[in-house]
């Protein structure tokens, strides 16, 4: 419910799922308020990319389905044009003391910066760990509940459909399917076809692993 209120109260939402896009005008609407849930805020270039950006995006997706009321947000800092949100970066001491403003090279070396804000907190707690999915989830105290191929628990509709298509097949048939899909994944595929192949592969590997584990017990 809080997530819905937060998104509807702000003028813009980032392209990444479950990540609210903030700027120097909207930042005060969420940060420091006692009547809002905690926030994990990333400060980075306007259009983040790379492994750390992927990790933050993955964490946001896990938070969305975890039941946690933590809000995920991002502040994009520009080093050209109007140089948006450099004032926010300065507020939290992210601009080196020997510089007036951040440059593109600074974004590569110093960012992202991630702050955790409890309700009513204006200073934030700096996250000093590695910017990985596992590290951020541990920091938030949120468990990544993945699809259980034996019970179907925590599986989305797509994964449940894949499990249904695999049910009833013998271990030999599953192994043969694994080899076939592995070869297909190495080929040039259309976007939707690749998504289907890789999704089925991921579930199939879990099924085979679970079968081997059960056989040893």
Short description:
Helix 3 (51-66) links the parallel strand 2 and strand 3 (71-77). The protein has helices at residues 2-9, 27-30, 51-66, 86-91, 104-110, 133-140, 157-166, 171-185, 191-216; strands at 19-22, 39-45, 71-77, 113-117, 125-126. The protein folds into 2 domains: 19-140, 3-Layer(aba) Sandwich (Glutaredoxin); 157-215.
**What's the shape?**
elongated
Approximately how much helix is present in the residues?
40-55%
The radius of gyration over CA amounts to 21 Å
CATH architectural arrangement of the largest domain: 3-Layer(aba) Sandwich
Mean pLDDT: 89
- Classify the beta-strand content into a percent band: 5-15%
How many structural domains can be distinguished in the coordinates?
Answer: 2
Across the major sheet, the strand order is 1-3-2-4-5
Q: What is the H/E string?
A: HEHEHEHHEEHHHH
Gap between N and C termini, in Å?
43 Å
Structural class estimated from helices and strands = alpha/beta
Task: Give a written overview of the molecule.
Helix content is 46%, strand content 12%. It is an alpha/beta fold. Helix 3 crosses helix 6, helix 7 crosses helix 9 and helix 8 packs antiparallel against helix 9 (191-216). The radius of gyration is 21 Å and the shape is elongated. It has nine helices and five strands. Mean pLDDT is 89; it is low at 4-9. It has a five-stranded mixed beta sheet. It has helices spanning 2-9, 27-30, 51-66, 86-91, 104-110, 133-140, 157-166, 171-185, 191-216; strands at 19-22, 39-45, 71-77, 113-117, 125-126. The protein folds into two domains: 19-140, 3-Layer(aba) Sandwich (Glutaredoxin); 157-215.
């Amino acid at each position: 419910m809080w997530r819905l209120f937060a998104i509807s109260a702000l003028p813009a939402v980032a392209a990444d799922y479950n990540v609210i896009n903030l700027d120097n005008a909207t930042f005060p609407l969420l940060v420091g308020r006692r009547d809002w849930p905690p926030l994990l805020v990333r400060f980075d270039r306007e259009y983040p990319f790379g492994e750390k950006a992927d990790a933050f995006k993955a964490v946001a997706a896990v938070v969305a389905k975890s039941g946690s009321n933590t809000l995920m947000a991002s502040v994009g800092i520009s080093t050209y044009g109007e140089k948006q949100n450099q004032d926010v970066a300065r507020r939290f001491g992210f601009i080196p003391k020997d510089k007036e403003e951040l440059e593109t090279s600074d974004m590569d070396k110093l960012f992202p910066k991630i702050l955790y804000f409890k309700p009513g907190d204006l200073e934030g707690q700096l996250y000093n760990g590695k910017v990985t999915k596992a590290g951020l989830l541990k920091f938030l105290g949120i468990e990544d509940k993945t699809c259980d191929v034996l019970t179907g628990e925590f599986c989305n509709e797509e994964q449940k459909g894949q499990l249904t298509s695999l049910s009833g097949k013998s271990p030999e048939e599953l192994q043969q399917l694994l080899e076939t899909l592995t070869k297909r994944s190495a080929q040039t595929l259309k976007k939707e076809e690749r998504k289907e192949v890789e999704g089925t592969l991921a579930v199939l590997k879990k099924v085979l692993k679970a079968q081997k584990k059960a056989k040893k017990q």
